[in-house]
Amino acid sequence: MGKTLAEKVWDEHVVRSTPGEPDLLFIDLHLIHEVTSPQAFEGLRLAGRRVRRPDLTLATEDHNVPTLDWDKPIADPVSRTQVETLRKNAEEFGVRLHPLGDVEQGIVHVVGPQLGLTQPGMTIVCGDSHTSTHGAFGAIAFGIGTSEVEHVLATQTLPQAKPKTMAVTVEGSLPEGVTAKDLILTLISKTGTGGGQGYIVEYRGQAIRELSMEARMTICNMSIEWGAKAGLIAPDETTFAYIEGKPHAPKGADWDAAVAHWRTLVTDADAVFDKEIVLDAGEITPFVTWGTNPGQGAPLGAAVPSPEDFADEQDRIAAEKALAYMGLKAGTPLREVKVDTVFIGSCTNGRIEDLRTAAEVIKGHKVAPDTRLLVVPGSVRVRMQAEQEGLDVVFKEAGAEWRGAGCSMCLGMNPDTLQPGERSASTSNRNFEGRQGKGGRTHLVSVPVAAATAVRGTLSSPADLVPAHA
Amino acid sequence: MEKFTTHTGVGVPLRRSNVDTDQIIPAVYLKRVSRTGFEDGLFAAWRNDPGFVLNKPEYAAGSVLVAGPDFGTGSSREHAVWALQDYGFKAVVSARFGDIFRGNSGKAGLVAAQVDEKVVQRLWDYLDEHPGATVTVDLESRTVRAGEGPDAIEDSFDIDDYTRWRLLEGLDDIGITLSHADDIAAYEATRPSWKPATL
Ligand code: SF4
């Protein structure tokens, strides 16, 4: 019997396998940031251990760095301590760090692919649940806890029980104006936030093949929001073209050897998945969330649901609570929901292609009078590329705030937060209560929807905009 | 991790059930960047109460916590175990533990000894009558002991074999993996040269 892609990558990384014990997996790349690493380094210090493979480890500052005044000392003492601790640890243990102010600084999941460090067939971990992003390249990538961070630092391996595999096949093509974000939000809403639990999910089918690397990252990024251990996509010409020429991409004969191997990283025709889901891409429309978990979503053209719409009692109670928190009335058309702040950024949608899409929608328009638009590039490189293309000018002329790179309002650990009761349309991945600031209300949306919403001041798609005067 | 064979220390009766990890250490105490120093946050909500058991001088040197059932449920924060250890606890005796807490304890070297509910009750009564008395947690024989003579308490406790072995040997997960360092090195020798490096 053949193997699935996930099984091939897994098997290539088993250092040791003993019945009754988890497999010991070798880790090809360990990414680190300031929030979940301090105790791991402290643990090494207490035990007198060193980092086994600094050359397979990379640190960056992202979660609580400011996106304004980033050349000044960080005002918040806790954030400052975490950042300074990371700097000290990186220095002491010989780990490369891209700190605030460095041209390679940015959100850890934007930085890896952009440097060409994320490649097909790798195992990649980070003390952050959205590590699943890197699966877009055909890697097994997942988030780990602080003890595990310490374990990887000390041994470059991780004991792991082999997860089950699932295939999500998306047939047909996505309609014009419908994005990868709409696809993944639709999938999560269909399967629930626990639908992927215990599985490594392979996204496949025509619609997935047709996606850019950026869009594939958006999909894999949100695998964790439906509970999957990891999500991945088989590498193909799109993947190879994206990696070629990146700073850490293989060169010359190495490139040929690498690509030859990468081409073998596909699920065999006779391989069997533990579970399969099929979606029709043609039926997907712009999709937004109305509730307080990523599974509580609906097509933009629909109305806020009523708790009575849910057959399951738990879903009904959850919907009731969510609507109260979100300050929404059942039956209100989603297009009429007024938004105070629009956030474009995060490791879900903070890459250059996302900013291009947003600028294209916004060009020639103004941000609505009572609405604020925050555009936060995922990395310094993305910021520089956008400025080279003049995208920053488009945003600024429309009245948006153009910021420095970081996680920013995705989780509100830095000063970019919502006020209690404030409503946002956000291109990030979590709409949990208080995620973007205490009492803040988050609607997860795609980039085109975010941009159009900023212009109209209510949840909208580009199709709702009166064309900008030619 | 230090080897744990047997420990005798002052027993602290915590007459509460369902002590979740938020109660063991509230979220505001999680912001430190160190692995140690979490003792201040231990049971923070109760520490201002002069009647709280840990505030009584007899228990100042407490190292064996005797808690009600469902100890350590809730959030997965590893800090709950660290806070207990930083305070000086070597073992917790309870009739039931939260799953993740028990796992985290085993990883960090804190013995989570699961006993019958009646044993907890007897230990509580004994410790109330003899404040500052010691309790022994013997991992080799899997027994808890306290008191002397005809009223002595002695009973067995549950702990899974793998965790017991690791604690007896003083092996944390990392220690165990490092004992396979040859396997790791052998694997590393086979990695293709084109795999990326960060340095
Ligand atoms: S952008 Fe948001 S989801 Fe992504 S790593 Fe940062 S905080 Fe996590």
- Helicity level of chain B: 25-40%
Distance between the termini of chain A: 60 Å
- Name the beta content range of chain B: 15-25%
Low-confidence stretches of chain B: none
Strand order of the largest sheet of chain B: 4-3-2-1-5-6-7
Q: What Rg of chain B is obtained from the alpha carbons, in whole angstroms? A: 19 Å
Strand order of the largest sheet of chain A: 5-4-3-6-7
Largest sheet of chain A: 5 strands, parallel
DSSP, total strands of chain A: 19
Can you summarize the main beta sheet of chain B? 7 strands, mixed
Low-confidence stretches of chain A: none
H/I helix tally of chain B: 7
Structural class of chain A: alpha/beta
The counted number of beta strands of chain B is 7
Q: Oligomerization state of this entry?
A: heterodimer
**Distinct small-molecule ligands in the complex:** iron/sulfur cluster
Rough outline of chain B: globular
Structure commentary:
The complex is a heterodimer of chains A (470) and B (199). With 470 residues, chain A is α/β, with parallel strands linked by helices. Chain A has helices at residues 5-11, 38-47, 77-93, 108-114, 146-155, 180-191, 206-209, 213-221, 237-243, 252-262, 313-326, 346-349, 352-362, 380-388, 391-398, 447-456; strands at residues 14-16, 23-26, 29-32, 57-60, 96-98, 123-126, 140-143, 157-160, 164-171, 199-204, 230-232, 275-280, 287-289, 297-299, 341-344, 372-375, 401-402, 423-426, 441-444. In chain A, helix 13 (352-362) packs across helix 15 (391-398). Chain B is α/β, with parallel strands linked by helices and 199 residues long. Chain B has 7 helices and 7 strands. Chain B has helices spanning 21-24, 79-87, 99-108, 117-129, 161-169, 173-178, 181-190, and strands at residues 6-14, 62-67, 91-94, 111-114, 134-138, 143-146, 153-156. Bound molecules: iron/sulfur cluster. The site of iron/sulfur cluster (SF4) has 13 residues of chain A, from helix 12.
